[in-house]
């Protein structure tokens, strides 16, 4: 793809996000299944639901531009998901594995936060106010997911279960 102006760049960014979000809709149920803590499992399930919404918002943005939704491989998300899978298979102790899962998921959320922040700026620059609003909604959900995971990590790391397992 030849990127020659801001609109091309914006389209490239949302094509990457479209791929990233679709990969996540497949990965999150597996992460939920791998989680030992029911709270963590619920957090992954909840964000899975939100992620399906992220996919459809991107579709509406494509359609609003008169384009059919297209995904271009997001190598970063591919790699982040792979790291998560490696963590799960490398850690046998359940509380420790949960901590590893959260570390992997926080990386995912930070990637998305960065990507939606840029996409929103580009959309604003292009005068696409509806797209700005949709990107903002998704961005807020990514930030909330990130914070929730961080809170879970903090409460788990201080939990007795983990302390006993690690001794
Ligand atoms: Fe997302
Ligand atoms: Fe990417
Ligand atoms: Zn997310």
Helix content: over 70%
Bound molecules: fe (iii) ion, zinc ion
The H/E string reads HHHHHH
Number of domains: 1
Determine the structural class based on helices, strands and strand pairing. mainly alpha
Kindly report how far apart the N and C termini lie: 54 Å
Percent of residues in β-strands: under 5%
Mean pLDDT metric = 95
The beta-strand count equals 0
- Please name the CATH architecture: Up-down Bundle
Write down the overall geometry. Answer: elongated
- Major β-sheet, in short? none
- Give me the Rg, rounded: 17 Å
Low-confidence stretches: none
Q: Could you please describe the fold and organization of this structure?
A:
The chain is an all-alpha fold. It has a single domain (6-166), classed as Ferritin, core subunit, four-helix bundle (Ferritin), CATH 1.20.1260.10. It has six helices and no strands. The longest helix is centred in the middle third of the chain and has 32 residues, at 94-125. The model has no long low-confidence stretch (mean pLDDT 95). The structure holds fe (iii) ion (2 copies) and zinc ion (ZN). Zinc ion is lined by residues 47, 51, 109, 112, 142, 145.
């Amino acid at each position: 793809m030849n990127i020659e102006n801001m609109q091309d760049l914006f389209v490239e960014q949302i094509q990457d996000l479209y791929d990233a979000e679709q990969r996540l809709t497949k990965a999150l149920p597996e992460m939920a299944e791998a989680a030992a803590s029911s709270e963590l499992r619920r957090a992954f399930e909840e964000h899975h639901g939100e992620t399906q919404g992220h996919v459809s918002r991107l579709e509406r943005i494509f359609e609003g531009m008169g384009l059919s939704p297209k995904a271009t491989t997001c190598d970063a998300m591919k790699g982040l998901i792979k790291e998560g899978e490696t963590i799960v298979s490398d850690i046998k102790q359940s509380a420790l594995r949960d901590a590893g899962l959260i570390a992997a998921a926080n990386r995912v959320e930070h990637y998305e936060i960065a990507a939606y922040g840029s996409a929103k700026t580009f959309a604003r620059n292009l005068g696409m106010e509806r797209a700005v609003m949709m990107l903002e909604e998704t961005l807020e959900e990514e930030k909330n997911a990130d914070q929730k995971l961080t809170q879970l990590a903090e409460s788990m790391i201080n939990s007795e279960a983990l302390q006993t397992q690690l001794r």
